[in-house]
Specification:
The protein is an alpha/beta fold. The chain has twelve helices and ten strands. It has helices spanning 9-20, 31-40, 57-69, 86-100, 122-126, 153-169, 184-197, 213-223, 226-229, 239-244, 249-256, 277-288, and strands at residues 23-26, 46-49, 73-79, 104-108, 138-143, 173-178, 203-208, 267-272, 292-294, 301-303. Strand 1 (23-26), helix 2 and strand 2 (46-49) form a beta-alpha-beta unit.
Length: 307
């Protein structure tokens, strides 16, 4: 059972702060979401650009430019298994930095079963001589609080430590953005373990924005996080509510009520908008504005979307 801190205003303030500093995820060709981001995210907010196989480099660069024009901080994904060679990597990073002012990237392995080029894993990409660029300042890496279906836990730990060291050796700031999770306990346990090795590496915990229960369970299966998905239908949520949508308020409240959150180093949240970007951005914006009431059931909170 997770320990609780005192309720009241400190918890509310923590919830609002986590919401205010949230980062988002968006698809390169989702023009409606990119347009909505300009009005729904405060200037300087970070938006990662997913790497979908159907998107070309021009799509990714155009999305990054649009977000930069809106005053936001684009963070494109770079999928190692879809990069063709050093020259392709150098061209893409060069254009992102020079044409869109990109200063941070999320480097991932990707879901392709076979790599297109010499980069089978994200560490291979980080070792490429084409990787450094003078405009880059931060590299985010993937973390897996519930493990990975194809990689042993010890191997995940060794690989993440090596990648953090490699990013730091390039003179860049490493950060970790975790895989989607529906329960605060695995995320907090994983973060505490990471802190024993890397006390100050920033961590963003991946959570799903408001969406239908069916949608969330589908993405849970895709992402291989079925264990924590059971939390979606727990915590005392009503059946009527679950038939319409589930939101991450229980996770945010759990994080805010975690006694040692302030000593866990830099910890934030990263939102996966499976229910639609605008829906997620409006919901988290209301939370950041303090338009919510803590539930007496000690599970989550109710957000006022009419304000």
């Amino acid at each position: 059972m997770m320990m609780r801190s005192d309720g009241g205003q400190p918890v509310r303030a923590r919830i609002a702060a986590l919401a205010e500093q949230a980062s988002f995820e968006i698809a390169a060709r989702d023009e409606a979401a990119i347009e909505a981001a300009a009005s729904l995210i405060a200037p300087g907010g970070r938006v990662s650009i997913t790497w979908l196989p159907r998107d070309g480099d021009d799509d990714r660069i155009a999305a990054a430019r649009a977000l930069r024009r809106a005053g936001l901080e684009p963070m494109p994904h770079i999928s190692s298994r879809i990069i063709e060679d050093d020259a392709h990597l150098g061209r893409l990073i060069g254009r992102l930095c020079d044409e869109a002012g990109v200063s941070q990237l999320l480097v991932i392995g990707g879901d392709a079963s076979q790599p297109r080029g010499p980069f089978a894993a994200s560490m291979d990409l980080l070792d490429s001589p084409a990787f450094p660029h003078p405009v880059l300042r931060r590299i985010a890496l993937g973390g897996y609080p519930e493990g990975h279906p194809a990689i042993a836990p010890d191997a995940l730990t060794v690989a993440l430590d090596a990648k953090i060291a490699r990013v730091a050796a390039m003179g860049l700031e490493p950060e970790v953005i975790t895989q989607l999770c529906f329960d605060s306990d695995p995320m907090l346990d994983w973060t505490r373990q990471l802190r024993m090795r890397h006390p100050q590496v920033p961590v963003r915990l991946g959570i799903a924005g408001p969406a239908s229960l069916r949608t969330l369970l589908r993405f849970a299966r895709i992402c291989g996080v079925g264990a924590s998905a059971r939390a979606i239908v727990s915590r005392g949520a009503s059946i009527a509510r679950l038939l319409t949508e589930a939101a991450p308020d229980p996770i945010l409240r759990d994080l805010a009520e975690t006694p040692d959150l302030d000593v866990l180093g830099p910890v934030g949240i990263h939102l996966f908008p499976f229910g639609g970007f605008e829906r997620t951005a409006r919901w988290i914006g209301a939370v950041a504005d303090g338009r919510f009431a803590l539930r007496q059931s000690d599970s989550g909170f109710q957000v006022d979307m009419a304000g």
